[in-house]
Amino acid sequence: MRSELELxxxxxPEFNVDDYLKxxxxxxxxxxxxxxxGVQELLDCFVEIAPSPRPVTAEERTVQPDEPxxxxxxxxxxxxxxxxxxxxxxxxxxxxxxxxRNTPYLHVRHNKTMRFSxxxxxxxxxxxxxxxxxxxxxxxxxxxxxxxxxxxLTEGExxxxxxxxxxxxxxxKYIENADPMKTKQLNKxxxxxxxxxxxxxxxxxxxxxxxxxxxxxxxxEVIQYRLENEYNAKxxxxxxxxxxxxxxxxxxxxxxxxxxxxxxxxxxKDRDGRDVFLADSGYVLQMAQMDFKxxxxxxxxxx
Length: 303
Prior knowledge:
The protein is α+β, with helices and mostly antiparallel strands. Helices cover 24% and strands 30% of the residues.
């Protein structure tokens, strides 16, 4: 062990904080979670070398972390943290100012004021209620379907932080109810899991069937397992041969309508009601792009 440490000391340069903050260097820690060895040292070192809060770009302007007024955005939603209560938690990153419990804040997308009586912070399995949070902190806010990933909270300013894009899926399957007596549970489970960002949901406008899009096979297995174990609902998958999902828009309404009529079997809506073209092959997508010059094909949901 000593010789291995000497080898590391001789081969690798000394740790440089500036290189780490630039993303050019990734420190590696050795320890044992089983024996609780090295955990405290890891946390102490992380506190010492972690970067301070950075400016965050919104559509309107750049928000500085030392601004006095609170701003933050939702970057993650998790369902069933407490399975007994079917609770959802929306995780908010504080971008500037000070977040205070029970203070009214503006939910920009809904344009309405909200108060949070029990904001929480998580450390491993411990959950504690917090009274205040500062720029760089992550807080959990109770969510009953109010939030979506990318939502902004402010003290009144109409800001729109650039959300986390959803990329075009690589794999597609129809999702079907395997137990007609559990339709309500299945629909609720699908809605909450899609809110989490586990996968993407499209509704085929031709037959009204729900299509789940993922980037890998494992996501289908995770969805099926969580539906059965967390929502007591069973689903089955039916394969569908698709190449790519593209969000489409156009400044020419007539051409857009013509495209939707011509491709009506392959048109779908995402959860926000936006038009999505489900191309069944690369050739079909290429020909559509050539034939409809005034339609923009987007491969992420942020456009």
